[in-house]
Amino acid sequence: MTLGIAGMLMLFACRTNPEMLSAPVTGYNHTSAAINRFTVNDAGGPNLGPHQGGGKQSCCGVVPRTWVPGLRAVVVWEKDPEPYSYGKWIERPYSDAWTKRMEEHKQQYSRHKVVVDIPKYDTAGTLKVHFLPCNQVRVSVDNVKPGDPRYPYNYPMNMPEPKVCPD
Question: CA 19, 143, 46 angle in degrees (round to 5)?
Answer without folding.
Answer: 95
